[in-house]
Amino acid sequence: MSGFSTKGRGKRYDSIIDTVGDTPVVRINRIAPKNVTVYVKTEAANPAGSVKDRLALSIIEAAERDGTLKPGQTVVEATSGNTGIGLAMVCAAKGYPLVITMVETFSVERRRLMRFLGAKVILTPKEEKGFGMYRKAEELAKANGWFFARQFETKANADIHEATTGPEIVRDFDGERLDYVVTGYGTGGTVSGIGRVLRKERPETKIVLTEPANAAIVSSGTAQERRDDGSPAGSHPSWEPHPIQGWTPDFIPLVLQEAIDQQYYDEMHPITGPEGMAWSRRLASEEGIFTGISGGSSFAVAMKVAETAPDGSVILCMLPDTGERYLSTLLFEDVEAVMTEEEIALMKSTPGYHYGV
Question: 180-207 pLDDT, tens per residue?
Fold first, then answer.
């Protein structure tokens, strides 16, 4: 039967954290234009379901190596969810208590997943935006002597993508054409890390970056005000609330600043939330690929790139997480919890086992 393998991975793992990375690249067969080839890198295959598992593991192990994280010390971080879930998985496996700060507007399932993995989740008011959750984490770290993960500034962020994600892409397309890589940004670690690699190993490959159309803070050209340690001094003036959870906090992270300063991306294409949600639904219903609003938004941009790409072009799109992170969001607002009218009609088309009638 096509697509099945029974050979296994050839090894057993000592810990769940050993399964982070080496995510599959999958061809899009039904919804991509026929004159180009489109692939997606499915980061939902990481053990806690997102690309941020790489970052979480890197932060903790880098801090263990340099001694800034002590055995049993509490870790604290500000996150929209995926980094927190990744950290909760890593901290559970390694025995560190974890406290997360998160804006109240992010999806309920993210909070519950982190708590299920043993973390404590502190909500911050929506009026304070991402900057507020960041400052709350900083405040808690200082007051309690906790280790502040600092995903938006830490060197360990882009480093893990330089060490793993970028080389994986190079290996998967070794000796073959790769014209475009499309990605969004949250912290900026993915684009900065793979940018370091692709600029050296595949300089012909164009990196396309995207951000929410109504929070186009990089596209604005307005610099981010920073404190001496590189952390944001306040919200970026061009930011507005947007539905693409995990993308674009209300400041330009220091990690992303590297990609801006070093010109690691060749094009910037802002995208709207509704476009991203529409493509997420199409990926699920027509390709069987389950990704969230951020993945759908990146894929929407990949489809725009495909419209004008030369014939024969090969496009790789990063899909950062799974759609299950978005069950309580607008992505699922039209999905019935019981039965649609069509399903009710099918139920009634035979005489027995009628539910609710």
Answer: 999 999 999 999 999 999 999 999 999 9
Q: Are residues 292 and 324 in the same domain?
A: yes
At residue 115, the 3 state secondary structure works out as helix
Per-residue DSSP letter, 151? T
Identify whether residues 292 and 227 lie together within a single domain: yes
Say how far apart CA 171 and CA 181 lie, in whole Å: 14
Question: Cβ distance 120 to 79 under 8 Å?
Answer: no
Residues 28 and 112 both lie in one domain: no
Task: Tell me: do 40 and 64 sit in the same domain.
Answer: no
Query: Is the same domain home to 178 and 34?
Result: yes
Which residues are annotated as catalytic?
Answer: 52, 294
User: Mean pLDDT in the chain?
Assistant: 96
Q: How many CB atoms lie within 10 A of CB 240?
A: 12
Interval 263-285: pLDDT, tens? 999 999 999 999 999 999 999 99
Tokens 């690309």 -> residue: 51
pTM of the model: 0.95
Flag whether 268 is in a domain.
Answer: yes
User: Do residues 39 and 73 share a domain?
Assistant: no
Per DSSP, the residues of 11-75 read S--SSGGGG-S-PPEEE--SSS-TTSEEEEEEGGGSTTSBTHHHHHHHHHHHHHHHTSS-TTPPE
Domain range enclosing 69 = 52-148
